[in-house]
Amino acid sequence: MTKDFRKKVHIPDEFYINATKDCKKFRSSRKYLPFPLSQEEEDFPLAYSMVVHHKVQNFERLLRAIYTPQNIYCVHVDNKAPASVRSAIRSIVSCFPNVFLASRLETVVYASWSRVQADLNCMADLLKASVTWKYFINLCGQDFPLKTNLEMVRALRSLDGANSLGSEKMPKNKMWRWKSVHHIVDGHIKRVGKPKEPPPFNLPIFSGNTYILVTRAYVGSVLEDKRIQALMDWAKDTYSPDEFLWATIQRMPGIPGSTWLHPKYDLSDMNALARLCKWEWHEGVRASLDAVYPKCHGTHVRNICIYGAGDLQWMLKQHHLFANKFDIDFDAVVVYCLEKYLRQKALAALE
C-alpha cells in the first residue's frame, strides 16, 4: 500500500472519542449487530478477554466483527498505552452494555507475568458477570476472526466440554524460560542468573501459546484450584509464562476439559482451534519437510507474519476460529475483505 492510501484508510483515535458521544448513531453507522442472528447463538453465549495496548482502529474493527448482544466482552487496556488510546477505547466500550473495561489494569511488559495477569483479571470479571457464558476466548488487538459467530458456536458445541489449545512436549531449547529466574529490569524482562526450583507437585511443563478456547469450568479452576494457584505463583518469575501456563494446566488431571499427560494427546497450534499464526521459520513450500505453511504475503514483526491480502485464500481454508496478526496500517485490504466475507456469510445464514 502507498503512504497516501494508508493515510486515507487510517482512522485517528480522536474520531472514536468524538463519534461515541452519540452511542446510538455510532453503533448504527458502524453496523454493530443489534440482535442475535439465531436462537442457537443466543443460547450459547461466549466470553472474550481482549488485551490491547495500541492501534484503536484494529481493536474497534475486531470488536465489531465479533460483536453480538448475547456475548460478553472484557477489555484490558495496558496502563502504559498512550492517553489517546485509553480514552478512545473507554469511549467505545461505554457504548455497549455487554462490553466493559477490566476492573484492574496492568502495566504489561512483553514476555512477563503481566500478560497472563491481564487475562486473569478479565477471567475473574467475566465469572462475576450475569451472563452464563459457555466458552472463554482470549484475544489481542491484532487478531481477527475467520469464522462467523454461528460457526464458532457450532465448533465449540462440538467440543462437548473439551478445551482447544496448543499443548505439546516442551522443546529442549525453550526450557531455559522456566528453569531460570527472570525479573523485570528497566521495563524489560531479564534472566538474573539464578536457577528456579522445580515446578510444584513435579508437574510436567508443556509448550503452548497465549491463545486458548476453554470452558467456563476451566476458567473457574484457574481461579480456584489450589494446584493451579501454586503453579501460577511458581511461574511469576519465568520468561513468557503465557506460552506454557495454559498448556500445562490443560494436562493436569481433574481440570475440566483437560487431556491426559501422554504424548498421544499432544495438540499443536495448527491442530487446535484457537489461533492461526505464521512463524517465519516454519514458512516454505509444501514439498519441504520443514515447512508448516506457505510463505507470508505480508511482512514480519518478531518473526510473526503480519498478513497481507495474498494470505486470505489460505487462511479461509483453515479450521481455526481466529488468526493473528493483522495491521490495518500495513494492509487494510485483508481486514476489509474479511469483514465483508464474514458479514455476508452471517446474514446469508438468515435466509
Average pLDDT rating: 96
- List the secondary-structure elements in sequence, H or E: HHHHEHEHEHEEHEHEEEEHHHEEEHEH
Overall SS class: alpha/beta
CATH class reads Alpha Beta
CATH architecture heading: Alpha-Beta Complex
Q: According to CATH, what is the topology?
A: Spore Coat Polysaccharide Biosynthesis Protein SpsA, Chain A
Strand order within the widest beta sheet: 3-2-1-4-10
Q: Specify Rg, calculated over alpha carbons.
A: 20 Å
How many separate domains? 1
The total count of helices amounts to: 14
Number of DSSP E strands? 14
Low-confidence stretches: none
User: How helical, in percent, are the residues?
Assistant: 25-40%
Give the strand content: 15-25%
A few lines on this structure:
With 351 residues, the protein is an alpha/beta fold. It is 35% helix and 17% strand. The longest helix is centred in the last third of the chain and has 17 residues.
